[in-house]
Design a protein that fits this description.
The complex is a heterodimer of chains A (670) and B (139).
Chain A: H1 5-12, H2 15-76, H3 78-82, H4 87-95, E1 104-108, E2 114-123, E3 129-134, H5 143-149, E4 157-162, E5 170-176, E6 182-188, H6 189-200, E7 203-207, E8 211-216, H7 223-229, E9 231-232, H8 234-242, E10 253-257, E11 260-271, E12 274-284, H9 287-295, H10 300-343, E13 347-352, E14 357-360, H11 362-367, E15 369-370, E16 373-374, H12 378-385, E17 391-398, E18 401-411, E19 417-426, H13 428-464, H14 471-502, E20 511-514, H15 515-532, E21 535-542, E22 547-550, H16 552-568, E23 574-582, E24 586-593, H17 631-641, E25 645-651, E26 655-663
Helix pairs in contact in A: 2-6, 2-10, 13-14, 15-16, 16-17
Chain B: E1 8-11, H1 15-28, E2 32-35, H2 38-45, E3 57-61, H3 69-76, E4 86-91, H4 97-107, E5 111-114, H5 120-138
Parallel strand pairs in B: 1-2, 1-3, 3-4, 4-5
The chains are: A alpha+beta (670), B alpha/beta (139).
Chain lengths: 670, 139
């Protein structure tokens, strides 16, 4: 079946389908984004958790270096420090491999007077100091280092973050010297944060208390920026220090800087077992991810999902609308051509070059079906007669039917023959009619020639009879000529009547007549012929006179025909009953013979033009059916023109009864 | 049987044509035997000993009730007494040449004429011609 555009519309363009798509798209996007967002958050959280471990390890490594250097100073250098003979101390520092990452070493006496201050120490990756500068006095900003030394116990090691973003901030470790005084090692937070950042793979920011940050590795963030931007409130600061696991489920918090989205994980900064500050580990979030992450907070998310759905649906809608005219046009074109192919009364068949059936419309399938099976083999006869496929109206017989086949070669776009298009038409009726008409004309010719033969023969006899022609013979010839001429005239009338019936109807010449009288007279005329044929005629009329309005000549013709048939189809003779009766408004004329009868198959067709039955006599031999099957056709036409009806009952081998019902008042006015 | 005297066997179902042929025979002074259909003709031919006069020429309509004229003719050709007489078939139908030839072959008739019949004189002449041809063949 062709796919109609309406069905396409129903399938594709139903409004509720759009609603379902919208709903499904929103839910789908919601779930998808939820999964993606959770996944991203988890990955960010995991990365920061890993980074925090790396960071602590790096800090531990640095503070270990501090401790190791202080240990050496206390154990090996204490005596020199006490005696303020610092050259050996310097020499040791120059060659000791444990000073990696230490920027400054300060030695104070018990009065916190500066003994030695080494700054800007340069170390090899292994820790050996290869350069330094010696300060005569500590910069005022670094006095905090001195004050820090007071907190140091006599034996303990203590770390702290000293200084602020304005000054140089340090991670400082201090140890009391035997006999008084303090040794301090310090690493700038710049170095510390760089090392920790490199080790952990993330950027970081360092706080030494609630408020501004003191260091950050984020590129482009100088001291000034730190002050304005990186702040941490006391709640967060002490909260993290009290319970490092706090923050959200992933241990991360959102952070927005300069319009960009970050995730930050706060961890305590622990040095020498003591929490000295807060470390913020930071990862940036990519733009699209940031959008998704931002949007994952409903109702923002819903807005985002809706917008995304609109974009997707908009795309679908535009695509569908761009395609719809094309699809509609194509499907309409297809529907149109298949409707044409289907409704066309002629069969259309496309055969491939190999003879296979590529296409056959319904009419073709019906024409080529024997029973219910489609059988295209009769087309082979066409192909045999017409090898190049271009032939017109070749008649092919299929069973009792005749199909006219016309063909044209089918050219491929390249011009080669790719098959044949065949047009099939059932011409059975036409062929039969032609045959019947031929037979009809031949029969008419025969019938007309018969009386003509008599007329010409008798005329010839009268002309050339000579002396043997006596008056008795002359009378016989003249009356025979008159009789045959009348017969000829009747035949011609009948042919004209048939032509009139064919071209729209008989025009009757109406008269007041007595049907009983007319039937009686006619039967009397026939009595001799009937007797010759072995038929005993019985006539009855009740009442004896039945006046009605009718066409005398036509009614005689009709009754003539019935009597003629009775005679022809009673080859063994028998009884013939002709009765005329009258009811209130109809007269009934009945002709009943005891002839061969009419088979049940033939019975419905006897009044059709050109129909000739194939009756058998009582011995089973075919009865010679003369005529061309128009007698009863004319009878029916005459009776119908009178406003009457004709019917037949028959039983093969028993006989037939024809019944004419005629209105007494004649035909009703047209 | 003299020069002009032939005995005619007429097989024709139409009363008027029968009558005209009989009248022609009467005018020629020729005797005639008339049979009205195939059944009567076959009955006549089935007699082993035909009553006199025996026909010299048969004029047989093809399209007659009962066995058709060409079959009657074929039967006639088997009758010992009259198998060599002249036979003329008649028809009112238009026949194609091949059908005509087939009728002649099957029937053994000497000629086939179409209705309306030729004039009296022509028919007379044809009958004599056929009879003489037959006699020429049989002697």
């Amino acid at each position: 079946m062709p796919l109609g555009s309406s069905r396409l519309n129903a399938r594709i363009f139903r409004p509720y389908a759009v609603l379902w798509i919208v709903a499904a798209a929103i839910i789908g996007l919601f779930v998808l984004l939820r999964v993606v967002v959770d996944g991203l958050e988890n990955r960010l959280g995991a990365r920061l958790a890993d980074a925090s471990q790396q960071a602590q390890l790096e800090i531990d490594s640095l503070t270990s270096a501090h401790a190791a250097l202080l240990e050496w100073i206390v154990l090996d250098g204490a005596a020199y420090v006490r005696e303020a003979d610092l050259d050996p101390v310097l020499a040791h520092l120059m060659y000791n491999p444990t000073a990696s990452g230490i920027d400054r070493v300060v030695l104070l006496d018990q009065d916190r007077q500066l003994l030695l201050a080494l700054d800007a120490m340069t170390t090899l990756p292994g820790g050996r100091i290869i350069g330094y500068s010696q300060l005569d006095s500590l910069p005022s900003a670094d006095l905090s280092l001195a004050s820090f030394s007071r907190e140091t116990g006599s034996a303990g090691v203590l770390s702290a973050l000293v200084g602020s973003a304005d000054t140089q901030p340090y991670l400082v470790t201090a140890r009391a010297l035997p006999g008084g005084g303090t040794a301090l090692t310090a690493t700038t937070l710049e170095r510390l944060s760089t090392r920790v950042s490199e080790a952990s793979g993330v950027d970081l920011v360092i706080y030494n208390g609630p408020g501004y940050a003191v260091a950050s590795t984020l590129p482009g963030w100088g001291v000034e920026d730190l002050r304005g931007t990186f702040t941490v409130d006391a709640w967060t600061y002490f909260g993290v220090l009290a319970a490092p696991a706090r923050s959200n489920a992933n241990g991360t918090l959102p952070l927005e800087l300069n319009g960009r989205e970050y995730r930050v994980r706060y961890v305590p900064l622990v040095a020498q077992g003591r929490t000295v500050g807060l470390l913020g580990l930071i990862v940036p979030v990519r733009y699209a991810v940031a959008l998704a992450l931002t949007a994952s907070d409903t109702p923002l998310f819903l807005a985002f999902a809706f917008a995304a759905s609109l974009v997707v649906l908009g795309g679908v809608y535009i695509t569908v609308n761009l395609l719809r005219p094309v699809v509609t046009a194509l499907s309409e074109e297809y529907a149109k051509s298949s409707a044409i192919l289907t409704s066309i009364a002629d069969g259309v068949i496309v055969r491939g070059a190999d003879g296979s059936i590529v296409l056959a419309n319904e009419a073709a399938q019906t024409l080529l079906s024997v029973g219910h099976a489609f059988d295209p083999s009769p087309l082979d006869a066409f192909a045999a007669l017409c090898p190049d496929g271009e032939c017109a109206e070749i008649e092919v017989s299929i069973g009792s039917r005749v199909i006219s086949v016309s063909g044209a070669p089918l050219r491929s776009p390249e011009g080669g023959a790719s098959g044949t298009v065949l047009i099939l038409r059932d011409v059975t009726a036409r062929v039969l009619t032609e045959r019947t008409k031929d037979s009809f004309l031949s029969q008419i010719g025969h019938e007309l020639r018969t009386p003509l033969t008599g007329i010409l023969g008798f005329a010839d006899a009268l002309t050339r009879g000579g002396e043997r022609l006596n008056p008795e013979m002359r009378d016989r010839a003249v009356s025979a000529i008159a009789e045959q001429s009348n017969l000829l005239a009747e035949m011609i009338d009948r042919i004209i009547d048939l032509a009139a019936v064919e071209s729209g109807g008989l025009s009757l010449r109406l008269d007041e007549l007595d049907l009983a009288e007319l039937a009686g007279e006619l039967l009397a005329d026939w009595r001799g012929q009937l007797l010759d044929g072995g038929l005993a005629a019985h006539f009855s009329a009740e009442p004896p006179s039945i006046p009605l309005r009718g066409d005398r000549r036509r009614l005689r013709t009709a009754l003539d025909q019935l009597l003629n048939n009775a005679l022809r189809f009673s080859p063994d003779g028998g009884d013939l009953f002709v009765s005329v009766t009258a009811g209130e408004s109809f007269a009934t004329l009945r002709v009943q013979d005891s002839g061969v009868g009419i088979s049940a198959d033939d019975l419905p067709h006897v009044f059709e033009r050109f129909f000739r039955g194939e009756p058998l006599d009582r011995q089973g031999n075919p009865v010679d059916v003369r005529g061309v099957g128009q007698g009863l056709y004319l009878v029916r036409a005459i009776v119908q023109a009178h406003g009457g009806t004709v019917s037949v009952e028959s039983q093969p081998g028993v006989g037939s009864t024809f019944t004419l019902r005629l209105p007494l008042v004649g035909p009703s006015a047209p | 049987m003299g020069d002009g005297n032939l005995t005619w066997l007429i097989v024709e179902d139409d009363g008027a044509i029968q009558a005209v042929l009989e009248m022609m025979c009467d005018l020629w002074g020729n005797p005639h035997i008339t049979l009205k259909d195939g059944r009567q003709a076959m009955e006549y031919l089935s007699q082993p000993e035909l009553a006199a006069p025996l026909p010299d020429i048969a004029l047989i309509d093809i399209r007659i009730p009962g066995p058709w004229g060409h079959l009657v003719s074929a039967r006639l050709r088997q009758h010992p007494q009259i198998k060599d007489i002249g036979v003329i078939l008649m028809t009112a139908y238009e026949l194609e040449d091949k059908d005509e030839a087939q009728y002649l072959a099957e029937s053994g008739a000497d000629a086939l004429i179409h209705k309306p019949l030729p004039s009296m004189d022509e028919l007379y002449a044809l009958a004599h011609q056929v009879v003489e041809q037959r006699r020429g063949q049989s002697h």
